[in-house]
Amino acid sequence: MNVRRHHISGMALAAVTALGLGTLSACSTDSAAAGGTEKFDVVASFYPMAFLAERIGGDHVNVTSLTEPGQEPHDLEISARQRAQLEKSDAALFLKGLQPSVDEAVTQSGARTKIDATTLTTLEEHGDEVGGHADEHEDEHAAEDGHGHEETGGKDPHVWLDPVKYAEVAEGVGKAFAKADPDHAADYKKNTAALVTELGALNTEFENGLAAAKSKVFITTHAAFGYLAERYGLTEEAISGLDPESEPSAARVKELEKMAKADGVTTVFYETLVSDKTARTVARDANLKTDVLDPIEGITEKSRGTDYFAVQRANLKALQTALGTA
Fold first, then answer.
1. Taking CA 40 as the corner, what is the angle to CA 37 and CA 41, rounded to the nearest 5 degrees?
2. Neighbours of 278 (CB within 10 A)
3. Is the pTM of this model over 0.85?
């Protein structure tokens, strides 16, 4: 896979400032209805969006997540109660293309500010042709169950796993909050700057930590790590495509086993919110080890850390071990 670099144009960020669009995802386990509080009420689609909302909003926001901890976000179906939460919210923060049910609910809702994180950075195509290998079975499965990411035109929505792209999204969310709640704009700006600085430091840790990797190829359950791989000069080979529930073809599994041998791959990574059965089968057949590489779609007691930064550092350590740098 050729490593490509795409720089965000000022247009995407300006769009949020000009239009005040926004969608939020939250990590709160609180099921209290959003809206009606004295704070700026934000409904976030899932953990990475909720984390941004909480870090940027600080004490001024009340964040409610549509996706419960431990729930696979791709499978979320919006309830009547959650639709009511969206109606009462001051802002909805979401990532279009990841959760079709959320996209539809936000579009139909009367949320005052709708923030779509995909408009705040540039999206690319990864996943169903990871490493240049398309899987027809995956495409058929995606078409059947609606989990194909057609909303983003086949583009990969997993931008939060790249600290640089996540920082771009954070900047746009901060501007949208400041526009929607101008009384607290100064605090939102300050909190955003602090978060962006922290994400910049994380990016440096990844750059330094993976610079001397002996191998550049890693195998994952589903194609969540395309942006991270590109950022640090690696190649992700996914058992499944962008949809974590899709089943790979026998030909794809055999191809992965052959590739693993040729590229010196040591480890097959699985994740915490979906079954590890396929990953373990591939690993066993190819005589490889298994480990966790967490797409950070939710934080649970199984997570290797209590927030985004802790889990990303655990991911870095796992990659260093698998790629021969630690």
1. 65
2. 20
3. no
